[in-house]
Specification:
By secondary structure, the protein is α+β, with helices and mostly antiparallel strands. The chain has 3 helices and 5 strands; from the N terminus they run αβββαββα.
Length: 205
């Protein structure tokens, strides 16, 4: 049972980590090399796409903005640029058109690079055609700029506090309610076994 318990907790922790890693904002230092607008047919991976732009009709096929970028080491990345509206994750992004215009204005070449910090959430997976969603961007001084994830730090501290609070409440509940109930059940079971032995033990003798 101990292995089953720790396996269960391990799976829960892994799922929680994956959820936070996908949802919390991340920062990439990149050079924007192009932007485009593609017609996308949303299929089985619809969970990894945001809704249509705020004010437009929902459709399984729609135009999506994309931002093409290059990392300082030469690696490439593509970001989608979609509104999140009032849905999940709660970024309340409603300015994808403005973000796309800003991205076009920051396009640069390797000879004269403009380095940009792109804030995004999500993952890039070529197998399942998943793209991170660009939330915001700003020009930075160079590729070695350090971005402190203040929002992530605050949210993780609050989350840790909630976990510790729930753990303390559970321990108090366990000590005050569950343990006395278990002890009472064990005492009742011992009394029943003693009565059974007294009654039937005498008959056998």
């Amino acid at each position: 049972m101990r292995y089953v318990k720790w396996t269960f907790f391990g799976i829960v922790a892994l799922l929680g980590f994956a959820f936070l890693h996908y949802t919390l904002p991340q920062h990439d230092i990149v050079r924007i090399v192009g932007t485009e607008n593609r017609r996308i047919d949303i299929g089985e991976n619809s969970w990894f796409w945001a809704g249509p732009d705020v004010g437009t009709a929902a459709s399984p096929s729609r135009d999506v903005y994309f931002i093409n970028a290059v990392y300082p080491d030469g690696g490439t990345m593509e970001y989608r640029n979609e509104d999140t509206g009032w849905g999940w994750p709660p970024y309340f992004k409603m300015d994808s058109s403005s973000t796309q215009t800003q991205a076009k204005d920051l396009i640069s070449t390797s000879a004269a690079p403009i380095w940009v910090s792109i804030t995004h959430y999500g993952w890039r997976n070529q197998l399942f055609t998943i793209f991170p969603n660009a939330i915001a961007m700003r020009q930075v001084d160079g590729p070695d700029v350090t971005i402190i994830p203040g929002v992530n730090i605050i949210l993780l501290v609050v989350l840790l506090g909630l976990v510790l609070l729930i753990r303390a409440m559970w321990r108090q509940f366990h000590e005050r309610m569950i343990e006395p109930a278990v002890i009472e059940m064990e005492e009742t079971a011992d009394s029943a076994r003693g009565w059974w032995r007294r009654m039937f033990g005498r008959r056998k003798s």
